[in-house]
Each structure stands twice: as C-alpha cells, then as structure tokens.
C-alpha cells in the first residue's frame, strides 16, 4: 500500500509506506511565524550565531564573559515589514559562556542556529509550574522557556559555578543543559527566554510522564491533571502503581553516579524543590500506533504548511529534516535512538518482568527539572516541604535509587 | 617574491609575476585601523545578510525610496577586540540600492566580500571640499564620505536616477551608486556612499585630470602638484597638450553616453560635475613590473604595477583566473576602460567618467561670498561641458 502523501511537497522522493516528515530546507530564512515574538527570536538567534562566527573562540573563558551581553536594536522604516516587526530589540546574555556550554554539550552552533531559525518554534503543550510558557524548536531538539527577570538574575548568580560543574563532569549530567539566554523586546514588552536541550526525544513519543521529588506531601496528580492527554503523574501515583524503572545494573550505576553529583552540586548552591522528570516511551505501543496511522491514510495534520509536522507515534520514520546534519540518513528501527541527540534516553532492561503494568520494552527519558524561580522562598500555594537543601538532596537521591532496578 | 603566506590557490597560477597576497578569510574579524571602517565593514556585512532574507520584489515601490534600515549595537564586555562597543548603522533605501547593484551587474555576495574581507584602504584622492575617500581592499569600489546635504540630494534624485538607469540599461558614465549609509561611532555621524571605482583595480593610473570645460581657476595648485598623483585640471590639460587617442567607434559610444548623461543632469538642475580622466601608461607599467621583479625581496605586497598579475582574490567570482597581458583588462570589472587607438603615440588605457554630480544649481543671488563663481545655469553648464569633452577627444 502506498500512502498518499498529498499534503505537502515531499522533499525525499524515496521511502514508501512510512510517514514522511515534510520539510523543505529553506535557503532564504524568512523568519515567518505566527507571532512577532517568535520571528524576533528566530532573527535574534540567527544574528547572534552569525556574530559569534566572527568572534574567535578564546582559549578559556574570563570572568568578564560571565557579565557580558550583546544588545541590538532594530528600527526599520518601510523595509522588511513582511515577517518581522519594524522595531524590536534583542539581547543575548553571556554569549561566550553559552557558546562554550553548547560546545561542551556537543551542540554545533550551526545546528543550533538551524533548529531555531529554519522554521518557527512550536508551542509545546506541556506546562511547567506557574504556567510558564514552553516552546520547542520546530525539530523538537530544543526547548525554549519563558522566564522572569528574577530567573535571569538567578541564572547569572549560578552561571559560573554551573559552568565549572559542566567542565568537571565533561557535560555528563542530568541537569538541564542551558544553551542560550535572551531578552526580546517587542512593542515595548520584554520577554526573557532560556533555551535548553529537550529532555524528551525529538522523535520518540512520550506515553507516560512523571514528575518525582521523593517527597510525600501532596504528590499526586489531580483529577484535572489526569484528564489531560499526557498527564504529569507524581510520586504517590508512581508508588501506588508499584513500579520500578528497569534499566539494568550498569545503566543504574551510571545514572545514579550522575544523579549524585548533580544533587550534591544543587545542594551546594542551596537549590531545592527540583524534580526528576521521567518520560516513558513504549516501543510496542508506538509500533502499534504507527500501523494504525498508516491504515488510516494520511490524516495527519501538518502544522505550519507542513514545516515541522506534529510528532506522533512516528518512530522508524526517516529523520525529521533531510538537511539537518544531526540526522543521519538511516532508518531507526523501533525503539532505537541516536544517543548523541537523545542524550537522556535509556533503554529498558527486559530481563526482569513484574506486573503487566511494568514498563517493558521502553525507553526512559529522565532528567532533572529545575523549577525556575530558584529562590527558596515559599510561594503561595507551593508545596511546603520542611527540609533544607541538603536534606532535600539526600531524600531525593534515596527515592530515585529505589525506583530503579 | 613569492609570499609564502598567500593562499595556495593563487600559487597555482603563474610563477614570476607578483601575486596579490590575499588569504580568504572564513572568519571576518572586521579588523581595521579606524573604528569607523570596522563599523562600515560590519554594517555592509549585516546589511547584505539581511537582504538575503528579504525577497526580491518584482518591482520597486514608491515606499522603497523612502525606506531605511537602522541598527544600534550595544555590547558590554563582548566582541571588543575589533569593534567599538557602541555604534549605529543606517542604510538608506536598501531595496533600491540592491536593485541598482543588480542593474550594474554587481552580485551582492561579491559586493559584500569586497567591503568586508579586508579593511578598505585610504585613498589620497580628494574630492571637492576635501571629502574623504577610501577604496575597498580589492579596489573594486570607492567609498566616499559625504554630507547630510548630499544624502538629502541623493534622496531627491534617487527615483529619477533609478529610472534613468533602467532606461539606459546601466550603460552610463554617471557614478554607479551602490549603497548609502550613515555610521555613528562615539556619537559622531558619518555619511558614506559607495560607487564603482572609475579607475582600474589592477592597472595603475599615472596621470589624472578633473575636467569641467570651464575656464576660471582650472589649474592645479602647487600644493596639489606636489602630491604623488596630483589632480590636474582643464588648463593643465590644454597646456600639457594632453591627448585622448581613442578610435572612432569608442569615441562615438562614449559621446553618446555622455550626451544622455549630461542631459539627464541638466534636467535635474545639477551642475558643477566633472569628467574624471585617468591615464594608464602600458609601457611604463611593464617597465615597473620588470623592475619590481628584479627587486624581489623588497616586496611590500602592494598592488601597484601588477599587470598580468593574477586577480586579487582567487575566490572573487568577478575575476577570471587567467593572467592578463600588459594593458589588458576585464571590461566587466573595469567598465570605464578604453584602450588607446593604434595610431596613438603611446600605448595607453583611459578611464573616464562623470563625478561629483550632487551639486544642485544655486542661483547667483543665493550664493555665499567665495563660492566658485560660474555664471551659468545647468543647461549652459551641460552644453559647455559636453562641447569641451568633445573637443579633447578629437
């Protein structure tokens, strides 16, 4: 059966049954987006990466680099009005530091630029705490989060130590990978953004999601939450299911080593209240969904004229974007992933099986989620935990060790 | 002397001839002796990049002639090595000048490269009122510092100028206006306009004249004559017995263009322009080339006397890759060049075009004391100008 690829002009003439992601590599970047702020983001990242390509990479970072910024203000008159606002400002914080961090996280600047500029970032449906706005790059490799100016200040406070930590652990960490920090001004309104690597895979759907803290107070998904398409379950939900995440001894050891280093680091910075974000991709289920999709013909909706199509149950598909060098041309078989891209993914170890609910033949995607507003002041409605950062980190670590096997 | 540091691409071409030393830079540092030049390089780089994201319209609209793009940069502890931390760059009518570049056969990438790969060089040429000149490192373009009044005048004439260029298919002796900018560094505003270089990027000019066809005070001062390449004027030309020896076909084509050009200028009530004449002596250049080879080891990497030299920049698409013999030129680059005819006493190449066209006619009673008094109007000026040039070409 040949699927009728009617929607958008497919670039790759090859491949038959599998659903193709339709993406046309744009030579001219128009920075077209549904909102001016997204256009400005695209323009800004494009500009700053270009600027950086003309600044030689220093041997090492200097203290000044952690206080630096680049600012640009654009004022056009009767020019270039089609996709961009006529007036806007773009500020990048500590450009050299983030360039260095991208390097340490093995992200090529060109790829980073492409991901954020070839096509508009998409709204993500997952919501962080306090309803912060999330976006993902069109290829789902990066997450763009709206933060407050206080968060920016806090980031500046921890940046040196964070960078040092990344140097010491050689980029091997479960902490968020901070890749860029910006301030956009459109229509006089300032928006602060932080770009991090996507925890979840850009290809593999997440079927179940947990936000774990190792705490006991109010750690259960509300009914409202459970009604969502992909609810964020919490500690008590997890425990009630009687689950373990089976990743095998080697993976567990390696994972816990990283985790230990990370939480100790967070404790020294007096940061707490973080979670372990766990996403589970069910290989069998995904395979099932893929077949259903094919049987139903091309009913997929393509967002944005087919640019950056929606990600649903489409593993084994040729990579997103033929032109994106991060994608190697080959197929991935079910459950396979490129560990240099999906850095958080761990395959399940299926030697032990518990109940029928256990996670077998899965990919686990886990990382530490720092909830912004790192100030440890109690917020109205926040879960009150009567521990200090040190205790928090210990309790957190204990809990995570126990859920892995 | 073979410069070891030069790009290996140039090395594959011709042996003894002195090579222009240029290493294709991947990273553009915008390094220059003057922050203003760094900002110019940065600005043109930015502007051409921006334009590459703007679709080329089918035709220009009236708004395009009033448009501008402005950018203000404010860096803090970042990128301080070659760039000032605070500067502004404004480009006037970007789409219009992009269209003009296209009509003049100039590719935007080449234009960008010429202005950004290496810093523009100071030129000792002086315009009226001592305006400052630079040429691009490859000598393809001239960058003139102008006044805000000039910028205003450009805006006044731009639509008609563009229309004229459309109608003559870019075939004109008028300045080829390619970009107009305002740079702000340290609070000071500098206006610049980029035009195609009238003289060759390769063949040096040994004698230069600024001709108007007027008779009053048209002689180079002693101070001027002391310069390395003085700008001689009408009386000098006549007294020197200088001749422009070109064959009839060239002469006809040249005067045809000139006639249309000065008619256009008269219509716009512009005057006080000049014909800039540059003369390249082929034998003399050959001689100098031989001398410089003998002096291998003294090489400064200057680009003078480089006849038959491989092109400046191996990767510049404008240049052909084969060496040119003495007195030869690529007419798509040296668009103003005309060879002397066979019967000429000396083998020469002439470069002739109109310059300084932005002076608007000011009636006598409005002029200030000390202004160069020419008691003619634009119409008369154009006739007198044309007649004079016709005479000197015979």
UniProtKB/TrEMBL annotation, chain A:
GO terms for cellular component: cytoplasm; plasma membrane
A biological-process GO annotation: phosphatidylinositol phosphate biosynthetic process
Gene3D superfamilies linked: 2-Layer Sandwich, Phosphatidylinositol Phosphate Kinase II Beta
Record keywords, A-Z: ATP-binding, Cytoplasm, Kinase, Lipid metabolism, Nucleotide-binding, Transferase
Region (Disordered): 296-319
Record EC number: 2.7.1.149
Primary location recorded for the protein, binned into one broad class: cytoplasm
GO molecular function, one term: 1-phosphatidylinositol-5-phosphate 4-kinase activity
InterPro entries: PInositol-4-P-4/5-kinase_C_sf, PInositol-4-P-4/5-kinase_core, PInositol-4-P-5-kinase_N, PInositol-4/5-P-5/4-kinase
Keyword Cytoplasm listed: yes
Keyword Lipid metabolism: yes
Domain PIPK per the UniProt entry, residue ranges: 33-404
Catalytic activity: 1,2-dihexadecanoyl-sn-glycero-3-phospho-(1D-myo-inositol-5-phosphate) + ATP = 1,2-dihexadecanoyl-sn-glycero-3-phospho-(1D-myo-inositol-4,5-bisphosphate) + ADP + H(+); 1,2-dihexadecanoyl-sn-glycero-3-phospho-(1D-myo-inositol-5-phosphate) + GTP = 1,2-dihexadecanoyl-sn-glycero-3-phospho-(1D-myo-inositol-4,5-bisphosphate) + GDP + H(+); a 1,2-diacyl-sn-glycero-3-phospho-(1D-myo-inositol-5-phosphate) + ATP = a 1,2-diacyl-sn-glycero-3-phospho-(1D-myo-inositol-4,5-bisphosphate) + ADP + H(+)
Listed name of the protein: 1-phosphatidylinositol-5-phosphate 4-kinase
Source organism of this protein record: Oncorhynchus tshawytscha (Chinook salmon)
From TrEMBL, chain B:
Enzyme category, top tier: transferase
Domain of life: Eukaryota
InterPro entries (UniProt xref): PInositol-4-P-4/5-kinase_C_sf, PInositol-4-P-4/5-kinase_core, PInositol-4-P-5-kinase_N, PInositol-4/5-P-5/4-kinase
Record-annotated PIPK domain positions: 32-393
Chain residue ranges for the region called Disordered: 286-328
Localization: Cell membrane; Cytoplasm; Lysosome; Nucleus
PANTHER family documented for this protein: PHOSPHATIDYLINOSITOL 5-PHOSPHATE 4-KINASE TYPE-2 ALPHA (PTHR23086:SF21), PHOSPHATIDYLINOSITOL-4-PHOSPHATE 5-KINASE (PTHR23086)
GO cellular component: lysosome; nucleus; plasma membrane
GO molecular function, one term: ATP binding
Catalytic reaction(s) noted: 1,2-dihexadecanoyl-sn-glycero-3-phospho-(1D-myo-inositol-5-phosphate) + GTP = 1,2-dihexadecanoyl-sn-glycero-3-phospho-(1D-myo-inositol-4,5-bisphosphate) + GDP + H(+); a 1,2-diacyl-sn-glycero-3-phospho-(1D-myo-inositol-5-phosphate) + ATP = a 1,2-diacyl-sn-glycero-3-phospho-(1D-myo-inositol-4,5-bisphosphate) + ADP + H(+); 1,2-dihexadecanoyl-sn-glycero-3-phospho-(1D-myo-inositol-5-phosphate) + ATP = 1,2-dihexadecanoyl-sn-glycero-3-phospho-(1D-myo-inositol-4,5-bisphosphate) + ADP + H(+)
Listed EC numbers: 2.7.1.149
Polar residues bias locations: 314-323
Protein name: Phosphatidylinositol 5-phosphate 4-kinase type-2 alpha
Bias kind Acidic residues: ranges: 288-303
Claim: Ribonucleoprotein is one of the keywords in the record: no
Keywords: ATP-binding, Cell membrane, Cytoplasm, Kinase, Lipid metabolism, Lysosome, Membrane, Nucleotide-binding, Nucleus, Transferase
Pfam families tied to this protein: PIP5K
Main location per the UniProt record: membrane
Gene Ontology BP, a term: phosphatidylinositol phosphate biosynthetic process
């Amino acid at each position: 059966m040949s699927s009728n690829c009617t929607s958008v002009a497919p670039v790759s003439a090859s491949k038959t049954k599998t659903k193709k992601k339709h993406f046309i590599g744009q030579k001219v970047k128009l920075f077209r987006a549904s909102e001016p702020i997204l256009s400005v983001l695209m323009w800004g990242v494009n500009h700053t990466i270009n600027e950086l390509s003309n600044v030689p990479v220093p041997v090492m970072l200097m203290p000044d680099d952690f206080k630096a910024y680049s600012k640009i203000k654009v004022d056009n008159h009767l020019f270039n009005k089609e996709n961009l606002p006529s007036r806007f400002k773009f500020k990048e914080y500590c450009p050299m530091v983030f360039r260095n961090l991208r390097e340490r996280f093995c992200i090529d600047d060109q790829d980073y630029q492409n991901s954020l500029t070839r096509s508009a970032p998409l709204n993500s449906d997952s919501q962080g705490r306090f309803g912060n706005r999330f976006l993902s790059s069109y290829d789902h490799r990066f997450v763009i989060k709206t933060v407050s100016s206080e968060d920016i200040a806090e980031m500046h406070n921890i940046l040196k130590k964070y960078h040092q930590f990344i140097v010491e652990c050689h980029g091997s960490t479960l902490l968020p990978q901070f890749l860029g920090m910006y301030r956009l001004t459109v229509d006089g309104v300032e928006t602060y953004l932080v770009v991090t690597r996507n925890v979840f895979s850009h290809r593999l759907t997440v079927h179940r999601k947990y936000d774990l803290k190792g705490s006991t107070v109010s750690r259960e998904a509300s009914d409202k939450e459970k009604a969502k398409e992909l609810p964020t379950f919490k500690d008590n939900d997890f425990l009630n299911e009687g689950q373990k995440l089976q990743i095998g001894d080697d993976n567990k050891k390696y994972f816990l080593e990283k985790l230990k280093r990370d939480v100790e680091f967070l404790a020294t910075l007096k940061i707490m209240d973080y979670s372990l974000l766990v996403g589970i991709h069910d290989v069998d289920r995904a395979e099932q969904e893929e077949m259903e999709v094919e049987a139903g013909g091309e009913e997929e909706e393509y967002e944005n004229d087919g640019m950056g199509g929606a990600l649903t149950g489409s593993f084994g598909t040729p990579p997103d974007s033929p032109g994106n060098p991060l994608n190697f041309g080959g197929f991935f078989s079910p459950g396979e992933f490129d560990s240099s891209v999906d850095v958080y993914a761990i395959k399940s170890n299926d030697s032990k099986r518990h109940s029928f609910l256990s996670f077998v033949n899965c990919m686990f995607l886990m990382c530490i989620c720092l909830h912004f507003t790192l100030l440890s002041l109690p917020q109205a409605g926040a879960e009150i935990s009567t521990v200090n950062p040190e205790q928090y980190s210990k309790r957190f670590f204990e809990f995570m060790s126990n859920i892995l096997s | 002397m073979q410069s070891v540091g030069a790009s290996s691409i140039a090395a594959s071409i011709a042996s003894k001839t002195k090579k222009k030393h240029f290493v294709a830079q991947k990273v553009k540092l915008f390094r220059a002796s003057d922050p203003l030049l760094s900002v110019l390089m940065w600005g043109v780089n930015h502007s051409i990049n921006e334009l590459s994201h703007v679709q080329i319209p089918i035709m220009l609209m009236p708004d395009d002639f009033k448009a501008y793009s402005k950018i203000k940069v404010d860096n803090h502890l970042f990128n301080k090595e070659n760039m000032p931390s605070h500067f502004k760059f404004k480009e006037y009518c970007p789409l219009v000048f992009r269209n003009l570049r296209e009509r003049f056969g100039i590719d935007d990438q080449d234009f960008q490269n010429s202005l950004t790969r290496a810093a523009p060089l100071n030129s000792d040429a002086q315009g009226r009122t001592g305006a400052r000149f630079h040429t691009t490192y490859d000598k393809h373009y001239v960058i003139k510092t102008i006044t805000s009044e000039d910028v205003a005048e450009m805006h006044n004439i731009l639509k008609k100028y563009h229309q004229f260029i459309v109608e003559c298919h870019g075939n004109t002796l008028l300045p080829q206006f390619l970009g107009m900018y305002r740079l702000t560094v340290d609070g000071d505003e500098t206006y610049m306009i980029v035009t195609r270089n009238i003289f060759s990027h390769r063949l040096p000019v040994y004698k230069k004249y600024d001709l108007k066809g007027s008779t009053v005070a048209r002689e180079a001062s002693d101070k001027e004559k002391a310069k390395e390449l003085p700008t001689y004027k009408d009386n000098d030309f006549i007294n020197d017995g200088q001749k422009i020896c070109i064959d009839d076909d060239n002469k006809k084509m040249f005067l045809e263009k000139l006639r249309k050009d000065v008619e256009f200028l008269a219509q716009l009530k512009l005057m006080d322009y000049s014909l800039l004449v540059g003369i390249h002596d082929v034998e003399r250049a050959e001689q100098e080339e031989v001398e410089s080879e003998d002096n291998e080891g003294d090489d400064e990497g200057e680009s003078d006397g480089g006849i038959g030299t491989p092109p400046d920049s191996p990767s510049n698409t404008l240049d052909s890759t084969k060496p040119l013999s003495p007195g030869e030129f690529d007419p798509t680059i040296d668009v103003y060049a005309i060879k002397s005819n066979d019967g000429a006493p000396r083998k020469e190449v002439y470069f002739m075009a109109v310059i300084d066209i932005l002076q608007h006619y000011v009636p006598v009673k409005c002029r200030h004391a000390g202004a160069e008094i020419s008691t003619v109007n634009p119409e008369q000026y154009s006739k007198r100008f044309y007649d004079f040039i016709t005479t000197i070409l015979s």
